[in-house]
Amino acid sequence: MATGTRRDYYEILGVRRDASLDDIKKAYRRLAVQYHPDRNPDNPGLEEKFKEASEAYAVLSNAEKRSRYDRFGHQAVAGNGFTGFDPAAFGDFADILGDLFGFSFGDIFGSRRPRARDVPRRGRDLQYTLSLKLEEAARGVEQQIKVPRFQDCGRCEGSGSEPGSTRETCSTCGGNGQVMFRRGFLSVSQTCPGCGGTGSLNRNPCTECSGRGRVEIETRLKVSVPAGVETGMRLRLVGEGERGTLGGPPGDLYVVLSIEEHHRFERDGADLHTELQVAVFEAMLGAELEVTTILDEVTSVHVKPGTQPGQVLRLRGLGMPHVESSRRGDLYAHVRVVVPKRLTAEQRRLVEEAAKLGGGDEGGTSDGLFDRLKRALGGQS
């Protein structure tokens, strides 16, 4: 509700009293475009309307001030007019007006934002992809890697200037990095055109780094990879990223692991799968076969008589290690029955004889047919 001759803030912006914050911003943006002094140089009277709309927006866009205004009117926000805004509110004005008029609100009504160049900055994090063989992932390994990164130039010690010379304070901005000018009733700052915002000029740039103050180097680092790692896992090397600026801390290096495919083993978490070739009569009669694990352990696996193609034999605890644990996954051997491509005359006769007997299910045949057949095919009796 208006007090005295002051207009109601909702009326000024042309919005309902239950308007959302988005509606209030849109209304203010429309009026700012319409009334801004730079858009109306021949009509100075519109500057007052711009101030009035800005005052209304400053109150209604702040939840606490809006609540007080709704309850008690203008008196509740007295002293919070346009000339006494909370500096924290200026960010909204920059968002709304900055792109309309081509300037930044570096200093409005005595409120100045600190420039990023004035504070120390942490160095960037770096990422390095390390490719490992499956055997290396199973055992754990120490690897030396070469990481390109920036560090302070040794010749100029990071100053960017030749030894014995220093940067000059920019005469255009007096070292502030920004210059001030008036836009109607606003004091506006923008990046200094003389120094590009740095506040100083480098008249004698370092010949080693071309004035950048940093050079790219290749650093050798040792990386300890624990056993059992998987593709996509990351190792963090604290402080091994790019160096910070203005005394800021360095970033970190993240080593991303990529495990190569293996010609004998297929991985499923901590479990491994492999193919076990079994001769046809070994599958029929049973056998003891050797299997070599990913850690080069040689173990015996029992193939039962009548083992079928595709059958899976589980070898517990012979798979991949779990990361930072003594436990291991399992090894699964998938049976592939191998049929001889060629037979000698004796082998063929014995196979035909076995076929006539119905596949050998009768058992106890005369003269040990299956023993003779096994010997003929190169097996053990």
Give the neighbour order of strands across the main sheet.
12-13-17-16
Helical content (DSSP H or I, runs of 4+): 10-25%
Number of domains: 4
What value does the average pLDDT take? 81
The main β sheet shows up as: 4 strands, mixed
Strand content: 25-35%
H/E element string?
Answer: HHHHHEEEHEEEEEEEEEEHEEEEHH
Spans of at least 5 consecutive residues with low confidence: 80-91, 102-118, 362-366
Question: What overall form do the CA principal axes indicate?
Answer: elongated
Label the CATH architecture of the largest domain: Orthogonal Bundle
**CATH homologous group name of the largest domain:** DnaJ domain
The span between the termini is: 108 Å
| SS-derived structural category | alpha+beta
What is the CATH topology descriptor of the largest domain?
A: Helix Hairpins
Q: What's the CATH class label of the largest domain?
A: Mainly Alpha
Taking all Cα atoms into account, the compactness measure Rg is 40 Å
Number of helices: 9
Note the topology.
Blueprint: H1 9-13, H2 21-35, H3 46-60, H4 63-72, H5 90-101, E1 107-108, E2 111-112, E3 126-132, H6 134-139, E4 141-152, E5 168-169, E6 178-183, E7 186-191, E8 200-201, E9 214-225, E10 234-237, E11 253-259, E12 266-268, E13 271-279, H7 280-285, E14 287-292, E15 298-303, E16 312-315, E17 331-338, H8 345-356, H9 369-376
